[in-house]
Amino acid sequence: MSCSASIAAITLWLAATGEPSGGAVRHLTIGTEATFPPYIIRDDAGALTGFDHQVMSEICTRTGHDCTWQTAPFGELIPGVAEGRFDVVLGGMAITPERRALVDFSIPYTWGGEIEWFIGFPGAPAPEAARIAVEAGTIHESWLRGQGLDFRSYPSEAAALDAVAGGETDLTLGPFAHRMDLAAQIEGRGLEYAWSVDIPDEGTGIAVCKGNTALKAQIDAALRAMEADGTLAALNSRWF
């Protein structure tokens, strides 16, 4: 289904049923990265959980949607929702002007830290003189492009770390602060936190196809209700 066809289907569904509480259930396909703690993680059984998984699951319940989850490399999420592969994408996704040009975002529902890290071996060159690995589709990739630095894009954080550990690049840039899940790939390989940088954004949001005002309105209403009744605060306390 194309993005425009998805919008038309949701609009017709809302026109026919009014609200999900009227008894109709619409299916949504949700795209996310396979793991990005604490937003998206896999439990011991391999099932998805985490802050964003629980936020979106609660939204699905409140809006009456039957939701299924699909994982994809982070760089495929924004294009995937723009093309209609996914109805919704999320996973610690920062709202930026560049992304808002491609998709529509919900209201922000949490804010991440703006300090990001370059990681490399001791004695690595400064970012201005380095070859830098970065995960494709991230705000870190956009920042490097805007700064005119020399970078190569990889499909995942793990692949970017492999690149610097294997000598393909001198540094990697990413959201590496407090990432115990990546400790073996960072400290365990002798890499170190070399330089930090501020990369501001507009908060964390849920992306839908550009022009899908009906679905965005439902998500925004659910988020506001979750903020008002304390659900968002409780989930935030649990995962952060």
TrEMBL record:
SMART domains, sorted: PBPb
Top-level taxon of origin: Bacteria
Family annotation (InterPro entries): Solute-binding_3/MltF_N
Keywords linked to the UniProt accession: Signal
Domain Solute-binding protein family 3/N-terminal residues, every copy: 27-240
Protein name: Cystine-binding periplasmic protein
Organism of this sequence: Pseudogemmobacter humi
